[in-house]
Design a protein that fits this description.
alpha/beta, 3-methyladenine DNA Glycosylase II, Chain A, domain 3, TIM Barrel, Rossmann fold, 3-stranded mixed β-sheet, 16 helices, disordered C terminus
Amino acid sequence: MALKALDIYKLLPKKNCKECGDPTCLTFAMKLAGGKADIDLCPYLDEQAKSVLGATTRPPIRLVRMGVGERSFAVGEEFVLYRHEKTFYHPPGIFFKVSDTQSAEEIAAVTNRVRDESFVRVGADLQVNGIAVENVSNSRETYANAVATVEKTADLPLVLMGKNVDVLTAALVHCGTYRPLIHAATLENFREMYALAKQHGCPLVIKAKGLDELAGLARTCSNEGIRDIILDPAPQSLRDFITTSTSVRQLAITRTVPDLGYPVFLDATLSAMQDAAVALGIVKYASVIVAAPLSPASTRAALTLRQNIYTDPQKPIQMNPGLYRIGSPGKDAPVLMTVNFSLTFFTLEGYLEATRIPCFMLIVDTEGLSVLTSVAAGKLNETLVRDSMKKFAVENEVSHRNLIIPGYASPLSGRIEEATGWKVLVGPRDAAEIGDFLQKGVEKVDADCHVLPELP
């Protein structure tokens, strides 16, 4: 059972030294009680206190950092089994696998793709995380050259995959200071593997079949000073992976088996249905996923799924309110008002850009709610629109006084006119129709700026 904050505080040195990063020992104790800190952050805990606190205070799934520099990332530190309970915090790292039997040109091509390929979705840059280099040749020189090729091409997080400790040692000469993930320690080689990981300060994958063997191996490596551990349950099928990874998550977050409180590894290349394996890994608790290079379409699908799963379901993705420009709008450019729900913003922005008509987008703060929801909840109202127009000085940007509002906000049109003094034009409900509306509808507004009827 997890200790309460005051119980933990009694075991702390009460120095308020701030070396843990918190202003007081009580603050640190509260974080420990909530699983938001690690006892290792306190340099003054004696062994008895550490043994009492132990795994009951650290996050149920340990945070593990991979790589260094701009593309480094962290996995783990999750607290729930289902994202609707709270949220998932650290998206899984996706790695494209290359073999040391491939030519330097082939390895460089995959590395270049991972380095350069990205796409933007709802304001976020989505990318594959790194490269996994598999040792197939069992040659020190060949494997070291393959790793060196990746390092020369890009600064990306690495997974070093091999069974031969001597071969992995040769590769670490090229990347040992960059925190590559070493795969994998097994019951046969774990002593050599944890010594190698400890020497270079690298995170380590431990691989075993069955939860008991996995927990035992994790405990052994942890006792040897290896803190950054990732679990490979060696699944025999996708069904086996789902069952095992779910059990690991349940036992970890309930602290039933603290030795399983680490992120999970999945080698999707072992499945005949790799795309399905990647998707299942994303939704069923894999924190590091290795796959043969996916097609562009499959890559986008996987990254989109990952983004969807690892957003907070209780907090909509929001844009900053403001006045946005599409193209280079002049004084006669249309002004379109909408909400700051990201999907609404980027959908409308895409259609507006396709029209090639310069215009302004006035984004008002509905706390990330969509148009229909914000109207129903009263978040979108005439006062908000009026205040937003003043705040962002819309009247200084255009010579006219016409405001286009979303079709679903049509019940507010009269009140917005009274509050702002602007003529309101009700746009289409479907953003896909905004091009026709701007090209045909606005041209029909007469000299008195009569409001257009809503498009069907």
